[in-house]
């Protein structure tokens, strides 16, 4: 088990599209364990493999207050999205300290596999729907700030640059 390094926006590796997982083996289970440990330590509610520079379609999340309801999605795909769009404040472990309103479908259905390769579908609403879409965006090479206007994207980059210079 290990705490992994989380890439920070605008690192170009965050824009790589993740490839499907084909081997449901011990290496995958170790990656999932390391990702969940990293997410909890950050602390965050979701983490995509892309964020830790592993370009495979794996994400973990835990929306529970007690942090004891880990969800694992391997090869997730949104198979349905409702037409109702909602604005929700989002943050990201790869964009520390930045929170912005993002518009997304209010409900989605996701098809994925668990860490053993078993298929499942899940209806997602509210915060779960936002998180699933946010994390799948990472697997598709997109960071939430890319949903913002170009002006807001520039402001986010400037804010992060200033923060890095102060370190």
Fold topology:
Layout: H1 26-41, E1 46-48, E2 58-61, E3 71-81, E4 85-92, E5 95-105, E6 107-113, E7 119-125, H2 126-139, H3 150-166
How would you describe this protein?
With 167 residues, the protein is an alpha+beta fold. The chain has one domain (12-166): Peptide Deformylase. 28% of the residues lie in helices and 31% in strands. It is built from 3 helices and 7 strands. The protein has helices at residues 26-41, 126-139, 150-166; strands at residues 46-48, 58-61, 71-81, 85-92, 95-105, 107-113, 119-125. A 5-stranded antiparallel beta sheet has the order 1-2-3-6-7. It has a two-stranded antiparallel sheet with strand order 4-5. The longest helix has 17 residues, at 150-166. The mean pLDDT is 96.
Round the mean pLDDT to the nearest integer and report it.
96
The helix/strand class is alpha+beta
The CATH class is Alpha Beta
Q: Span between N and C termini?
A: 28 Å
Q: What's the gist of this structure?
A:
The chain has helices at 26-41, 126-139, 150-166; strands at 46-48, 58-61, 71-81, 85-92, 95-105, 107-113, 119-125.
Features:
alpha+beta, Peptide Deformylase, 28% helix, two-stranded antiparallel sheet
């Amino acid at each position: 088990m290990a705490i992994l390094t989380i890439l920070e926006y605008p690192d170009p590796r965050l824009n790589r599209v993740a490839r499907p997982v084909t081997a449901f083996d011990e290496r995958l289970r170790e990656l999932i364990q390391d990702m969940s440990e990293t997410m909890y330590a950050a602390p965050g509610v979701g983490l995509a493999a892309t964020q830790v520079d592993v370009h495979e379609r794996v994400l973990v999340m835990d929306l529970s207050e007690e942090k004891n309801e880990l969800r694992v999605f391997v090869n997730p795909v949104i198979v349905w999205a409702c037409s109702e769009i909602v604005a929700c404040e989002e943050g990201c472990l790869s964009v520390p300290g930045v929170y912005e309103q993002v518009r997304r479908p209010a409900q989605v259905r996701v098809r994925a596999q668990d860490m053993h390769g078993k298929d499942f579908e899940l209806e997602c609403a509210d915060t779960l729907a936002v998180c699933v879409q946010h994390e799948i965006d990472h697997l598709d090479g997109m960071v939430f700030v890319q949903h913002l206007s170009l002006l807001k994207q520039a402001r986010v980059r400037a804010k992060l640059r200033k923060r890095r210079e102060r370190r």
